[in-house]
Structure formats: structure tokens, C-alpha cells
Amino acid sequence: MKTKWAIALCLVLSMVLIPSALAGASQTIVVAPTGGDDVASLQAAFAAAGLGGVVELTAGDFNLSEPLVIHNWSGMVRGQGKDKTILHTITDPFLRIPVATFTGD
Is the pTM for the entire model greater than 0.90? Predict the structure, then answer.
């Protein structure tokens, strides 16, 4: 009888603890333009958001000196609208380089 109660207790705890642990792994990280090169702050935001997290870009002009490279990340990138959150490449305005590259499984 004690074995059945122990199994039931383990099942209940796993239903409570596992989802809460997974929920804590992802976050919403809000990033604002710095006025300079925004590559480092955006890379840090993706790292801090975690798997399943959200990187929210405020309104403004984000300047990128090189493409963002994000490894093994899945989540959401959210801006404030196509005319409000704008990503610029600052190396050459006429050179078409990718703004971001996502790699992983």
C-alpha cells in the first residue's frame, strides 16, 4: 500500500515541478536600440531569453555591424511594427547581407 502512495505522490510532484521548471527556463527579454552597434545587446538578449523565450525589440532603429548568429535557439522575436522597429546594416547600406542567421537542430 505504501508503494502505491509513493508512486502517486511522485506522479503529482512531477506534474507540478517539471512544468514549473520548464516555464522558468524561458523569459521575455526587452531590447532597446543603443544608438551605436546593437549586435552585442541583441546576441545577449537571445542568450538570456533561453529556449522558448521571447526577444522583444522596442520601437527604434537597431544598427548591426554584422549579421546576428543565433545557435540552437527556438522562440519568438517580436517588434513593434514594420515602421517602428527597424534593423539596419551599418557596414554598407547597399550591401544585402542577412540580418540574422539561426542555426541548430
Answer: no
